[in-house]
Write a structure and sequence with these properties.
The protein is α/β, with parallel strands linked by helices. The chain has helices at residues 2-8, 23-26, 32-42, 66-85, 114-124, 140-145, 194-212, 238-255, 270-284, 295-305, 326-348; strands at residues 90-93, 129-133, 152-159, 183-188, 216-220, 260-263. The chain has a single domain (2-348), classed as Histone deacetylase domain (Arginase, Chain A). The N and C termini lie far apart (46 Å).
């Protein structure tokens, strides 16, 4: 849907076709036990303990060829890391972002963690990596895989785990050992809107990046904090996403030598996600933003989906009802930010 929109807008550039990641590359962040079970399930051979490894569940069902499919997604993000190391400054992976996959467990639609494989490739090449996650769900897999690593800063802004999967991402999850103070979580209140999200984002992210001094940013650009998304409760509009993507590119220039690798992520409203990622694509390539979406494209997809789509790239004004608790939500988000910075500052700034 996204690529057809970009084609209809006349801005689509033929993508590269990276190779699938090798088994050995997947094993740089995952256990042999997990990989064996994914490989077997791909062939229709089901271990009796699959659910212990997060496989064969409602979120992460098994299917023929799943190992190769997952390794192709890993391969795309890993190729992005290779291109950063070869001197490219910006790489966009129109896929990936499978941030829930753990060392020993698939989770939340994620079989292998493409982000962590790419991050490990970058750190083994001597780079300090700042990982920024704006998916509405906590980037738990990436956090835990790199929890004790001083070369990796993880920064996740997400709806609070008190209300949303995966139930983690609290401010006290700060890392361990050499990684202490390098794992930052900003859990946000349900019904957080643009102004509050941007307020805490603009206060936290440049502060953390300036202290950490990364060589490269790796960004998971999930679109499921959009107000139309059916799986979560944040209320971002496309105006907020435009600001976020502009800031990400500015921060990469200011704090990481311009080096940034961006993947996609969650996004379960087709209407919302396709427009958010079209915005990302345009801003990433320095293209002017269109106001209206092509009529033929929109009518074609409305026929396929059986429901209307927003005719403009940006959300219309008044896209959702007034939130009566706005002031309270904004206050709680500020207090969470204050608590987080007080907790991590002695370690991050050390």
């Amino acid at each position: 849907m996204l690529t057809s929109l970009l084609e209809a807008l006349g801005v689509w550039r033929a993508p590269l076709s990276p190779p699938e990641a090798s088994r050995e590359e997947v094993l740089t962040v995952h256990s042999e036990r997990l990989v064996k079970r994914v490989e077997a399930a791909s062939r229709g051979e089901l271990y009796p303990d699959l659910e212990h490894y997060g496989l064969g569940t409602g979120d992460t069902p098994v299917f023929p060829g799943m190992d190769r499919a997952a390794r192709f997604l890993v391969g795309g993000t890993l190729e992005g890391a290779r291109r950063i190391l070869s001197g490219e400054r910006r790489v966009l992976q129109l896929g990936g972002g499978l941030h829930h996959a753990q060392y020993d467990r698939a989770s939340g639609f994620c079989v292998y963690n493409d982000l962590s494989v790419a991050i490990r490739h970058l750190t083994r090449s001597g780079l300090r990596v700042a990982y920024l996650d704006i998916d509405v769900h906590h980037g738990d897999g990436v956090q835990w895989i790199h929890y004790e690593e001083k070369e990796v800063l993880t920064l996740s802004l997400h709806e609070s785990g008190r209300y949303l999967f995966p139930g983690t991402g609290h401010v006290h999850e700060m890392g361990r050992g050499e990684g202490l103070g390098k794992k930052l979580n900003l859990p946000l209140e349900p019904f957080t809107e643009d102004a509050s999200y941007l307020e805490v984002f603009e206060a936290l992210v440049p502060w953390a990046l300036k202290a950490f001094r990364p060589d490269v940013l790796v960004v998971q650009a999930g679109a499921d904090a959009h107000h139309l998304d059916p799986l979560a409760d944040l209320l971002l509009t496309t105006r907020a996403y435009e600001r976020l993507f502009r800031l990400v590119l500015e921060y990469a220039e200011a704090y990481a030598g311009g080096r940034v690798l961006v993947t996609l992520g969650g996004g379960y409203s087709l209407d919302g996600a396709v427009r958010v990622w079209a915005l990302l694509y345009h801003l990433f390539h320095g293209l002017p933003l269109p106001e209206r979406l092509p009529e033929g494209w929109r009518k074609g997809w409305e026929g396929r989906l059986g429901k209307p789509l927003t005719p403009t790239l940006h959300d219309p004004e008044g896209a959702y009802p007034e939130i009566p608790r706005r002031g309270e939500i904004e206050k709680r988000n500020r207090l969470t930010l204050q608590r987080l910075t007080e907790l991590v500052a002695p370690h991050l700034l050390h």
